[in-house]
Amino acid sequence: MAERVQPVSLSTLGGAAVVALLLVLTLGTLGAVAWRAEEVSALSRSDWSAVRFTLWQAALSAVLSAVCAIPVARALARRQFRGRGALLTILGAPFILPVIVAVLGLLAVYGRSGIVSVALVWAGLEPVSIYGWHGVILAHVFFNLPLATRLILQGWLSIPAERFRLAQSLGFTSRDIARHLERPMLREVLPGVVMVIFLICTTSFAVALALGGGPKATTIELAIYQAFRFDFDLGKAALLGLVQFAICAVLALASLKISVPSGQGAGLDRVVPRDDGSKVLDGFAIAVVAVFLIAPLAMIVAKGLPGLTELSPSILAAAWRSVWVAVGSAALTVVMALALALLALKWGRGVEAVGYLSVAASPLVIGTGLFILTYRWIDPVLLALPVTMVVNAAMSLPFTLRALSPALRQVEEDYGRLATSLGLSGWARLRIVLLPRLRRPLGFGAGLAAALSMGDLGVITLFADPSRATLPLALYNLMTAYRMQEAFAAALVLLVLSLTLFWLFDRGGRVDADV
After folding, report:
1. How many helices (H) and strands (E) would you count in the chain?
2. pLDDT per residue as tens digits for the range 16-25
């Protein structure tokens, strides 16, 4: 077993440092904000309204995403067509897409001057408005429908192909297959899918900031931002942060209890051509989702290209700041994930759970807590970009850790005893045995962290000087100033940079990798 193998000695000190850092970033910063608060009063009616809206919109977004993903995943599981691989790649794009870019694309399609409203006006109808709770939910479905589709598709592909071959030989209709094979799988997969998306939507900030607001469309994260930015009420911010931490912690623990099934028995991994169900309905489901996902991105490209040559130097400077913050965040994420995963090999899986604490924490509370802990020694404005880098790394750590830990345990299972017998330990073991075989998950994790950091609109909104804004903040400022031509050009730059960074890191991890 991997637990008997002695991991490299560097893991203890480095992993312990990461554990301490994560505890400071999550629980420590929350305590610092509460400590600095002059008083901590009970939450007001509007605060509880924000809590209710957060839970309500997260539940509705999760259910809609999962329900809409079912026919798409089913169609992808039983149809082979030209461009299927490209569509699956597109299904992964929204997760690394900068939120503010997606919001701008959705505005171009569904806003009052978007193509949908223009078509409605041409038909003699009233234009639609994307602002408010329905806009928040629309954006969350846009981001999470692809994720739900991929997760449910994995459930469909986990059904052994021999089951479908047997169903064909028994003369099963499409309804029979759904009853005996597909619905049992969905009953196991769907709760976990809904729970994961619910957790993601609970911590929403940029979507609510751009499309929500007001007493009827304020999330907990947006209420924390308002408490910091406008009222400087640290007590309310700390209490809201604690409420959010408790909600997310309960959801995270519940999601761990709901696991995706490993399969419905063993099979020979053969591909069985399927011809059950309606090809028309499958094609319609795939076409609708493809248009829904591609249209906002196409509008960003179409409206952004003409303004690229007129971008101001401040936007280009903001893009450069975002790039180095993203690269630094990616490097920090990889180092933290590797150190924590190595420590988990020695001390057990419970240590790894510390890496997921940031899922339940508010980035705004983390950033504010860090400023409170350091403002006596340095100007907070000077710390805006470094703190943003650290917070982004903490927020990306769970995803990188999830990709790295299983691969690391497998490498130790396969090569650990041999490395120990050869006397390899410390840096030599890390360099010769582990890193060459972990390049794929490390590259993917770094790319994901860089893309997420590149599009982050969180801590930087609180403390950045206008002259030191990142590209997402500069883009948001352009949108609020109604300088839409420049905004679309900046959004295109942000989109290209985010996807490029992800591709470079992910590709770098796959070049000459052993596995």
Report:
1. 23, 0
2. 888 888 888 8
Q: Is residue 500 over pLDDT 80?
A: yes
Cα–chain-centroid distance for residue 50?
Answer: 22
> How many whole angstroms separate alpha carbon 292 and alpha carbon 286?
10
Question: pTM of the full predicted structure?
Answer: 0.80
- Using CA atoms, how far residue 41 sits from 38, 44, 222, 234, 237, in Å, is 10, 9, 19, 10, 11
State the sign of the Cα–Cα–Cα–Cα dihedral 146, 148, 151, 152: negative
Q: With CA atoms as reference, report the closest residue to 6 among 268, 343, 306, 368.
A: 343
Of 421, 417, 418, 415, the closest CA to residue 436 belongs to: 415
Please indicate, yes or no, if residue 2 is contained in any of the structural domains: no
Rg of the chain, C-alpha, whole Å: 24
What's the CA gap between 131 and 208, in Å, rounded? 9
Evaluate whether residue 515 is within a structural domain.
Answer: no
Residues sharing a CB contact under 8 Å with residue 252, sequence separation 6 or more, in sequence order: 199, 356, 359, 360
Which one, of 488, 330, 458, lies nearest residue 399 by Cα?
330
pLDDT digit string (tens) for 209-262?
888 766 677 888 888 888 887 777 888 888 888 888 888 888 777 766 665 444
Domain contains 3: no
Q: Chain-centre distance of CA 159, in angstroms? A: 27
More confident residue, 163 or 406: 406
Mean pLDDT, the chain, whole residue set: 80
* Pair 222, 53: CB distance under 8 Å: no
The mean-pLDDT minimum among 22-31, 276-285, 292-301 falls in 276-285
Mean pLDDT for 373-396 is 82
- Eight-class DSSP state of 270: -
Q: What are phi and psi of 208, to 5 degrees?
A: -65, -35
- DSSP labels for 68-110? HHHHHHHHHHH---TTHHHHHHHHHHHHHS-HHHHHHHHHHHH
Domain that includes residue 71, residue range: 10-35+44-265+273-510
Look at residue 10 in the predicted model and tell me its pLDDT: 52
Mean of the pLDDT values across residues 449-478?
83
Is residue 308 one of the residues assigned to a domain?
yes
**DSSP letter (8 states) at residue 437:** G
Would you tell me how many other CB atoms lie within 10 Å of the CB of residue 367?
A: 26
The number of domains in the chain is 1
Tokens found for residue 403: 């990709």
User: What CA–CA distance (Å, rounded) separates 49 from 35?
Assistant: 25
In 3D space, the residue among 234, 201, 235 whose CA is nearest the CA of residue 220 turns out to be 201
62, 194 Cβ separation under 8 angstroms = yes
Q: Which residue has the tokens 């038909």?
A: 123
CA distance readout (Å), 54 to 219, 364, 376, 396: 5, 16, 35, 22
CATH assignment of the domain containing 105: 1.10.3720.10
